[in-house]
Amino acid sequence: MLARHASAGARTAVVPSTWTAGGHRAAEFARTLEILGAGAPRLPGYADARNPASAVGDAVRLVAAPLDEAVGRPVAHLREVRPDIVVGHDAPGRLTGHPDHRRAHQITLLAVRSATGSSASSPSPPPSPPCPPDRERPRSETEMTATPSPDEAENRVMTDEEYGVLRASAALWAGTSVLVTDERGRVLIQHVDYRPTCLLPGGAVDRGEAPARAASRELGEELGVTMAVARGLAVDWVGADGFGAPAEMRFPGEIVHVYDGGTWDDERIASIRLPEGEIESVEFVEPARLPGLMSPVDARRALSALRARIDAAGPALLENGLPLAPTVLDRVGALSTARARHHLPFHPGPAPASLSTVQAWGWFLGPDGRVLVLLDPDTGAACLPGGAPAPQDRDDPLVTLRRAVHEEAAAEFGEPLFLGHLSDPDEPCARLRYAAPLTRLGPPPVDPATGRAHVRVLATPEQAVELFDWGSPAADQLAAVHHARARLGIPRAVRQPLTELPDATDLTAGWPASP
Question: Which superfamily does CATH assign the domain made up of 2-130+142-169 to?
Fold first, then answer.
């Protein structure tokens, strides 16, 4: 069979059950393979159970070798040769009855499954007495059974050793990352000396180490910061081909746990101390820059984790950085486009008459204290409802506000409260801010300014601010919003997942009756 396939141009290879280089028949075996066109010998290094002279020195007998070790050796050959056909001994070794041949059948099936992920029949262990009743256990989805050859009477449950080897063959690496932002919502990344792309703080989980403990350890080793992490943001399954690892690394895939490192103030950032080597520098970057600085899967994971932190729906389950159950922020690609930078001072009083009004925006509060936010369906960019004055508004900012909010969001609102204005150091103008109870939403309209319908969501005021880059003045505006909310008798919103509002909605039923 070997000669026929070799003469037809196929690549063939032979891995014997036993024998080592230097054995008294090793040269004969090599010459036989040469004649058959099967390449160089691939000797496993084990001794024959019945012929000690088959191996040199203190080689272990195949039947006594640890199963995971015995399976690992042919796995390496299978991955190198990538055969279409694998021929081996049958389960009971009927041709000779040799114990090595029965063991070889078991090893071969496990090796094929481990090397290729195929659905090859589960290995049949050597004949053994039935399992005593006190050793029996209920069958489950994870319990493996052996598929008998036609002459075998019944299936057998895999031994614990076989099952352990099979599970170990599918094992993945485990890693951690920590998502840290500054007070502007920028993400901390590390420039490292061993990769051309940047990383979040984190690293490998050591043997026996819990992922959260590994994340805390890595923060100390890489940034010199001592802190515990307790909130998970994402768990990412990374496939063997999702990392772009070199072949010699034998990357099997990885489970990466992403934790929330919180928002760091200037004092905490100043306490960062980098180790000598490995971490060249750190910086805080706009989330939209991550795809240009990190590997594709790392950038997807970081953005998914950041959206999960804002959305507050719990840890996201990812595959190669992409969420299995995308939230509205994931669907619109929030934060994948650079946020408009508006670090403009907020003033709680009215705008001076010398400043022209260029914008009127509103914080429109639902009955639960959340506010209406509009998301661009193409870029994910967020904004508050409102717009710029038009001639038909007759210089009345409230007319501007009602018109723009109706055009953008088909929204109606109650009596507004004036919050204040933003001034621009580079331009003599004012941007006005209002707060009002949100009462009704019609069907999503097409915005005449963009030709697209915004995605409407309810978010807490704090969640809304995290979607903007307003700098430190955002805190002043946020304080004014909560002051107005209290005046309107609206409760403070509990942080919760964003709610999309795709349909017409009457919110008046949620408001308390007027006295």
Answer: LmbE-like (3.40.50.10320)
